[in-house]
TrEMBL record:
Molecular function in Gene Ontology: peptidase activity
All residue ranges annotated as the SLH domain in the record: 19-82, 87-147
Keywords noted in UniProt: Hydrolase, Protease, Signal
Name recorded for this polypeptide: Protease complex subunit PrcB family protein
Taxonomic classification: Bacteria, Bacillati, Bacillota, Bacilli, Bacillales
Listed GO biological process terms: proteolysis
Pfam family, one: PrcB_C
Keyword Manganese in annotation: no
Leader sequence residues: 1-24
Keyword field contains Hydrolase: yes
């Protein structure tokens, strides 16, 4: 019985090791395994089959946008649209039902500056991918940057609109020049290079991630004015000077009986003088007594 149990345990162990390596790509170049595996685990990249990633294969514009948007976790959570955005609103060659349409929409509203007439099936160049990647990375935060200029031997081959972002890409150490000091901006990017660049960008963003600022609570108090009207006060509490403010942007009356009061906060400006007098930062509005007042921070409205 003991021998059977031992044999079973050994069999399971060997099976788990085999299973763990069954889906490892066997065509990766030296130094690519960590990046590709990490992106694969996050669902950002996949191989052409279970054993091959094809790192020397080319990557299309559509695949690039999808990889960058997913890799840097770009989204539109803080945007509110008057109507649902479509790819055709911003691009002439992106079908609204294409598998990559949502990625292009997200990229557009995150400022990746993709040409309106972009061909999604075109092979992307190193400078095009690098520009998008840096813009996506910089949407994640404000990063420290050493004020220095990196000499690129083939700088004259870089389009002027990409020179700034590619300099920052090198300073962020998302990639490096080749041994001759060239960036090779017009060369077609490979799948392996793209995975490495995106992985480095994710690592950089994670290393410099800032803890989110605590959300300031805004108190909502309701005072009956009449049977039909209530006075609603939004307050930030007592503040050390008059530089702290709160303003109501709009009120949305929902069918569930809630009056959602959208507000924005303002804080003292460093170049302004304020009297050091304790002041309650508050604002007032009036609503029908039929509604329950709730407050929420204002969102950016996109048309």
């Amino acid at each position: 019985m003991k021998k059977i149990a031992t044999l079973t345990l050994t069999t399971l162990l060997l099976s788990s090791l085999t299973f763990g390596t069954a889906f490892a790509f066997n065509d990766l170049d030296e130094g690519q395994t960590e990046a590709v595996t990490a992106l694969q685990d996050r669902g950002i990249v996949s191989g052409i089959d279970s054993e091959h990633f094809a790192p020397k294969g080319k990557i299309s514009y559509a695949q690039s946008v999808q990889m960058i948007v997913k890799g840097l976790d770009l989204n539109m959570d803080l945007l509110r649209f008057v109507k649902k955005p479509l790819a055709s609103d911003s691009f002439t060659n992106i079908p609204n039902d294409a598998w990559y349409a949502d990625a292009f929409i997200t990229a557009h509203y995150n400022g990746l500056e993709i040409p309106k007439d972009v061909n999604p099936n075109a092979i992307i160049t190193r400078e095009q991918f690098g520009d998008m990647l840096v813009r996506a990375l910089e949407k994640k935060g404000n990063y420290p940057l050493v004020k220095m200029f990196i000499q690129i031997k083939d700088e004259d081959q870089i389009k002027p609109e990409y020179q700034g972002t590619l300099q920052r890409m090198l300073l962020y150490k998302l990639t490096a020049l080749d041994k001759e000091g060239n960036f090779n901006p017009r060369s077609e990017l490979t799948r392996g290079e793209a995975a490495g660049w995106v992985y480095n960008a994710i690592q950089f963003a994670d290393a410099h991630a800032e803890k989110p600022a605590p959300t300031e609570e805004v108190a909502v108090t309701v005072e009956k004015i009449s049977d039909d009207v209530n006075k609603v006060t939004l307050s930030r509490g007592e503040k050390p000077n008059s530089g702290y403010g709160i303003a109501i942007n709009n009120i949305r009356f929902d069918q569930d009986g809630q009056a959602v009061i959208s507000y924005t906060l303002s804080n003292p400006q460093p170049d302004m003088m304020y009297a050091d007098v304790i002041n309650e930062a508050k604002t007032v509005t009036y609503i029908s007594s039929k509604y329950k007042a709730v407050a929420e921070p204002a969102m950016t409205i996109m048309k």
